[in-house]
Amino acid sequence: MKRFWLDWRRRKALRRVADETIEGFLKHGLPTRRQTIETVELLALDIETTGLDPRTADILSIGWVVIKGGVIELSTAQRMIVSSLSEVGQSATIHGLTDTEVSTGIALHEAISQVVEAAAGRVLVVHHAGLDKALLDRAVKTCFGAPFLIPIIDTLAMAHRKATQQHHLSGPAGLRLSDLREQYGLPVYSAHDSTVDALATAELLLAMLEHDHEGANTRVWRLASY
User: Fold this and answer.
1) What is the spatial distance between Cα 148 and Cα 160, in angstroms, rounded to a whole number?
2) 3-class secondary structure, 80
């Protein structure tokens, strides 16, 4: 059912858009109900912003890495600094980006075009989809007049479901990317660099699949939303 509604929304959006970039993205087929993580390509992605409210925050940096055949392809890792009219303000204490760095970044339209092209035909992987997906939706609508209609695997949501099933809810802090990586014995990385966090999310997903599911044989739609 999730796949049916996403496909319907993509076909509906396709009738309204005129840009080749978003058209190409929307024309890509979705994974079938039986396809597994091993048989699809995934795009682990992270965004650094000026704030946590997706209605007002500006995107400052986007990083990603591709997972193919259940393996992270480090050669695909990318990071973009995005120019912003807003000052980074107190958010600089988290991501370390300065107003000077951001002023030399690429335009939002160029950055989002690259994201859309990288995501075409793939499943998105993020940690905390509520924020990143809302920001991407807003940006893609601004640039192309359509929402970012893509299957999403949210490692935070996966961890929350597991904790709920085990009656072991430890609060939001226990679901942070760094805390979850520690639970699965993954190495400590410096946080809040978009490419590093994308890689950290990719590694966490594979560890969770191997430990809690069926590894790369886990069906995509068992985990994905949109």
Assistant:
1) 24
2) strand
